[in-house]
Amino acid sequence: MSTLKITTIIFDLDGTLSDTNKIQSAVEAEILNRYGVKISAAEIGRRFSGVKTSEFFRELLRGQDLDIDGIIEEKWRRVISLAKREAGPIPGALELVEYFKEAEFGLALASSSRKEYVMAVLNKLGLKDKFKTITSGDEVEKGKPDPAIFLLAAKKMGVRPEECLVFEDAMSGMTAAKRAGMKCVGLIARDDEREYPADVLVHDWADMENIKSILK
Predict the structure, then answer these.
(1) Is 14 a catalytic residue?
(2) pLDDT tens per residue, range 93-111
(3) Of 16, 41, 191, 197, whose CB is crowded by the most CB atoms within 10 A?
């Protein structure tokens, strides 16, 4: 087992720092239902949280003679517009980022979402300048649970995967972090009884005792 010290914190965005999962899921459900895919925003959240839009839209719309690229573009136009007005922080997220910033860890962000959207959300939250590097889903061929986005984030930071601690809220993201060889803290709902692969699970970012335990 590696004994390398954690030097770098990698944050996911939607559902981890920002409350924007609900914005994305609502728009995605409306669009997919329009094309005959009967799925709710809640089901999208359960099944596809953290997964690249291009991947699960192509899966669900497979076999139809549709301009899927155009449909995906519509989704991003709408969620970017909504995020600029409505995005807010997950409780405790801003304080969590500030804690690690003040403790002089290297901070990175790795989101499956499109870069334009990521920057819109970070601007709304006042977090744009907190991260040394920002990696988006545009930069990798495969999205979470593939580890590519976290491995690229580590490469940009100039560190080994074993030096990274990932903060995530999605099963796909936690799985990707562990596949990348990184430690992971997962944020889950109190009534969520699923098994998650994160090293530490918390229900609130204010649970600093458990979060700090992984750094020891």
Answers:
(1) yes
(2) 999 999 999 999 999 999 9
(3) 16
